[in-house]
Amino acid sequence: MTERPILRVRGLTRLYGRTVACRNVSFDLWPGEVLGVVGESGAGKTTLLKCLSAQVEPTDGTIEYDTRADGLVDVFALSEPARRMLLRTDWGIVHQNPRDGLHMGVSAGGNVGERLMAVGARHYGNIRSEVLDWLDRVEIDTGRIDDRPDTFSGGMQQRVQIARNLISRPRLLFLDEPTGGLDVSVQARLLDLLRQLVASTGVAAIVVTHDLGVVRLLAHRLMVMRGGEVVEHGLTDQVLDDPQHAYSQLLVSSILQV
Amino acid sequence: MTSDETTAAFGAEHVAGYNFAYLDEQTKRMIRRAILKAIAIPGYQVPFGSREMPLPYGWGTGGIQVTASVIGPDDVLKVIDQGADDTTNAVSIRAFFAKTTGVATTERTAEATLIQTRHRIPETPLREGQVLIYQVPIPEPLRWLEPRESETRKMHALAEYGVMQVSLYEDIARYGRIAKAYNYPVRVHARYITSPSPIPKFDNPKMDRNPAIQLFGAGRERRIYAIPPYTAVESLDFDDYPFTVEQWPESCALCGATDSFLDEIVTNDKGGRMFICSDTDYCAGRRAENGEETAA
To answer: pTM score, two decimals?
Structure first.
């Protein structure tokens, strides 16, 4: 493991007018590590993720990313072209709703191959074979490469989205409720797949969810948010088995036992 | 030359009550400034204040404004529509300029200094000093891929052209080849992706390092762009699916040309059809030449 964190966040605050979306969030994310962010609806999880992935500018605080060329760099001090390049190559964002992350009018193959073409791949055969390889890795029947994602089930769309992001071999992946809206058996398969991909590619990831089962399976570390602030922070098992903050205790005790 | 001098010099030639070439001098200046900027940044779309012209949008209001701004009393004008000099649009625009400027008009590509065109580039190679003016309906090549103007401008600024390649990928995945036959996207001077206007892709190679100045005017969309002489224009493709042009099973039924863009004409309802050159001047020129040879 390298000595530098891949992402260093200090005092991150985002206000919408006088409404606090998230306040004074600080953490380090290390290469290959998966950080879970949990909390109830409206706790500021999604805003936090949008700030971290440079889609929304924070009101205060810094986000530094360990770029391949220059080491730790403030993401919002980068020029816009550099930031957009980062978003397309070094980072991946898996949206809660696949419609936000996929072109529904473009075939699955086109969606998955877009990042390759965006950075200059100009050989159809090579793009095609790499796309097929990734569809196979996310367990999608390669015969459906030319079908449009709107003919796919929710779980398949989510997997196409994951393949689309991982094809550029990103170092940092943002996952916003990756299993939201999927039925439990599909959720389980998707989580299994994600866990295996994260382990095999060594990508660092931030997973935002309200589902404690998801973080238990995926995340090494856990942040519990409430009202825009981080109320508890620690190793996943530690937080889930021995929650300290009253809200974490409530959250853990609210899991339905089957 | 000021407008008064122009009028004095050519007063007898063109219809009274209008400024030379219909547009007022201030407007022409504004358009010339846009043209200069467009030539300075090959392939970049320059916004301009498009005026209302005495013909409907879609009939060449952009091209006609560019022509009106660059035309001078010594110019010789040729207007073509789909390669033909004798179609309604071409005839009307040629008559319009003959009336409002009194300049000489021609149907011969070689004799013209200004050529306004819709949907074709003449077959006769252009030379230095000629200006080719295209009528453009949709100047934005990324429009069908990204509907937001703010976003397409940003994509041009940052040269983010991945989506264009994706659209070609989709063609190959679906049809086994790049199916775009006209308005085939080009990259100008290895920088801006540009719409060549709805010319057949057959004409794309003619744009590359062409000695003539190529100006593009889109009246409704209010954009002017340009390709200066001898500028590299590359049609987008894949390494293993290279750009190709159309081919025909026959040669021109009238002049026998094998190297020109052919239109398929249905001659009767019993399946009769013939292929003839879309460029009427080129076809007529070849026929005249062949006729002379047979006579001699």
So the answer is: 0.87
